[in-house]
Predict the structure.
Amino acid sequence: MSFSLTRRGLVASGLLAPLATPLIARAQGAAWPNKQLRIICAFPAGGITDAFARAYGEYIGSKSGQTVVVENRPGAGGGIAAQALKTAPDDGHTLMITISTTLFGNRVMFKSLAYDPDKDFSLLALLPTGSLPLVAARATGASNIAQFVEHARKNRVSFGSYAAGSMAHIVCNALNQQFNLDMTVVNYRGEAPMWQDVLTGNSQIALGSFTAAKAVLDANAGTPIAIPSTRRMKALPNTPTFAEQGLDNPVFRLLSWVGFLGQSSMPQPLVETVSALMLEAAQTERIRKLNETFGIEDPVLGHADFKRIYDTEGPIWIENVRKLGLTPA
């Protein structure tokens, strides 16, 4: 089954509920999808990006009647997947899901890119991945930023980061600069080994997803001391945000997300169709449960809001990755 890119066709098929104002632009004679769809996932199976790729892909498949294949293409901070999307057949049947690093941090961390983040892709939907709590090891005795800073002034501190140029890496650098600290960032390959070192006392602090941090929190081996968000997490209601503790650097308010992208040549009506599908998929029981599992509270954003976040937060990401002083690969 394929469906017409018109408001009437989408309502008739049950894809969208009738509304007074059309959300989907008309495109006479266009139909999508009319063959197998491919979602290129920029990270390995088993993580949140892959989980979203499969859940949203399943929904698109159920709505369209077409097979949706998830293809994991990890490496180079999402750069391998980005190049694969750029060079895919120009027919709107290949999408990509990746993280902000692919679009922002890679500009700084690589001497050259085989893709142009600003020109080669269409922004379809942004999926928040939840606030990333900053967790201090129990041995530090800290329950807030001020107490941890006092500890860090007197002791050597290893700060766990799940990847070079990541949100964790940026936060560590921002804290070092703001408080004139000398914490050593340790960039791991993913969250599992990072939190294991906090659990065993080899690392004194780390920042990452709530789900991955739960092992440390449940074992009472660490204390969440700050949330990089504009509001507290429901899962950690007693943990104040950075802003509540007097830290107003925009770094501490950056949104953590993964995003669905298409090729830049994708017609605007198709951009709007796919974006609408993502927004509807987010309301399904499967994806609601997935969000609960990962402690995600913010709503999925459509293409227009994705562009707004891209334009407003992108420069902050890029500027702060530059401040890390990384040697481009």
Q: What stands out?
A: DSSP finds twelve helices and twelve strands in the chain.
